[in-house]
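Quick one: Complement component 1 Q subcomponent-binding protein, mitochondrial from Hydra vulgaris, structure tokens please.
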Amino acid sequence: MVWSRSLVSISQKIVSTLHCSHGLLRSSKIGSSLHSKSLLLTNKPMIKPFLFRTFATKQTEGDRDLVNFLKEEISYEQDNLSELPKFKDFKVQISGTEVKLFRNLNNEKIEVEFDINENVNIDEGILKEDGDESEENSEDHEITSYPSFSVKITKPSGKVLHFNCVYNTNHNEELDVESEEDEQFELFRFENVKVYTDSEKNVYEAETETMDGDLYSMLMTTLLERGVDGVFVNSLLDLSTTLEHKQYISFLQSLQDFAAGK
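--- reply ---
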């Protein structure tokens, strides 16, 4: 560094000149001070302070009210958060809002997937069982988060049987149980199904609206035999509702940080 060395030399010459001309420097303190400052210049580039100024945003009255409200809301939601259910045969994998459950059975791979952002959230506290409105001032509100989920059954050959399923809620007018044999299917249903391999694209999906009833029942049995039964879908609903609640709390915390200027 030629330029740094020259700065040291210049500073030394200045000290020597002052000492000889005026006899003011009777000790090496000032000279050593100048020498140290020159060394600092050689090691650190000159930085203009204004380049690193931080500009704090001014918090509005509305932001302060929002922060205070969210503190209580977050505390309330955390107190009412349920524990995640456990699954006997399926492993659970969670990535953000995407949830995947999977197992291997008889050389087949069974995968169940859903996205919390696609859930249907229903406030069970504001509706009676018959669908009539209850008192609006009711304090207890239970949010049930119904997922739309897919089930993929993959054979060792790579062939996949893919179902797209939805829950039958108490508020779903399409639910129609015609016989006792159909009662086992009243918790959920599949809306379409397709068969494909990973290399195939634009595969035909068979809709259930025009499907033969016997075929539909046998395909539902295919799901039940692989563990996608009443116990599983009830646990899946609990999982979906709890994870949606956790995501909602995380959203409130992020909103609080935003309003606080963090």
